Amino acid sequence: MPSEQLPNIFELTPLDPKFREAPHQVLDDLRSQCPVYREPAAGTFILTRYADVRATVSDLEMWRDPLRAEAAAVFQRRLAETAVTGEPRAETTSILMLDDPDHARIRQPLARALYARVAKGRANVERIVDSALDRLENEPEFDLMSEFCVPIPIDVIAAILGVDHERLGEFRDWSEGVIQAVNPFRDAAQTEHMERSRAALTDYFTQMLALRRKAPQDDLFSDMTRLQAEGLPISDTELRINLSALLVGGNLTTTDLIGNAVRLLLTHPDELAKLQADPGIINAVVEETLRYDPPVDITSRIASRDIEVGGCPIKTSQSILVSLRGANRDPEMFSDPHRFDVSRKHHPHLAFGGGAHICIGAPLARMEAQVGISRLFNRFPNLRLVDPEEPPAWRMLPFFRGLQHLKVSAH
């Protein structure tokens, strides 16, 4: 592919109409003709081939912190612009952007506490899903995104954290605000919303941590303050940053996973029929959705040493963006990759990334999607799109793929 025809970073986001409507037309061309290339505007290498992407995200020596990227890595450096000179790095960003030893110091105990909550939390997820479905019982038509897909993940992560139910509306707004931290193309209004939301979350989490120290409850706030009291070397600032990141991760991506799965099932009636005939395949339905239409487009790494990927030399501190979406449709790994097939015998998809930075919320997202999708179609077996001819209304947030709305009829 001639260099002048290679897409720039904007053309690999939903801000570009072609990519928004048909991302795999772009990604297929890249993967077959130029699977590794340097995009000068962003100052980063872009990878689309499964083998290259998996090797890169699984490489435990790769860096994640954008501060370690070369000056030319404009995209990465934009993600680091909130860093405060002189402050410990772990007190300015979450584990999403940290390297070891801080990454392991914070992630490992947080993950153990979170996974223990998830392991005993299925009944709570079922209760939250059923409550959402009860509210829709007498609605002939509704927007599945706003009425079901959005509130469920935020209610679940809020319950795990120990958030007051009365504050959920505020949390939804704050979550939408802080997610703009991962949008390098945000405008002034989005930046203002992000900063306002960060401040609100900081204040609320400060109050909650103080309350749980005095009166522990059965929640993640209490788990972490108890670990601190037992000697865990994590500061309150680090806790606030990473619990906020959990809130964001529990909102947007799981919302999009559920919404994308429901849309795929409604537009592929043969696949939906398989699920309705055998509800036990719900795990396979969720995994095929993650492969076929994942909520996250990319992740990134920074070369910690001189390496070669696909015959292309990459120098220390150069930035690498990997297309999780492109890798998950690589025909070298998946037969007939553009077919949504819930009976597919799965090779490992890369929707959650990999290596030390594999998505910490993956077990929770899977459980929420399994419960939410199963119970939705059990309650509303005749669920259908209000207008099957209406094109999908994809959101415009770069590097994420989810629906603005999904209008359905339940009867």
From TrEMBL:
Q: Which residues form the signal peptide?
A: none
Member of which family? Belongs to the cytochrome P450 family.
**Protein name per Swiss-Prot or TrEMBL:** Cytochrome P450
What InterPro entries does this protein's entry cite? Cyt_P450, Cyt_P450_B, Cyt_P450_CS, Cyt_P450_sf
The alphabetical list of record keywords is: Heme, Iron, Metal-binding, Monooxygenase, Oxidoreductase
Q: State if Membrane is listed as a keyword.
A: no
Instruction: Please provide an example of a Pfam family that matches this protein in its UniProt record.
Output: p450
Which PROSITE patterns does this UniProt record tie to the protein?
A: CYTOCHROME_P450
Q: Does the keyword Glycoprotein apply?
A: no
Q: Which PANTHER family match?
A: CYTOCHROME P450 YJIB-RELATED, P450, PUTATIVE (EUROFUNG)-RELATED
Q: Which SUPFAM superfamilies match?
A: Cytochrome P450 (SSF48264)
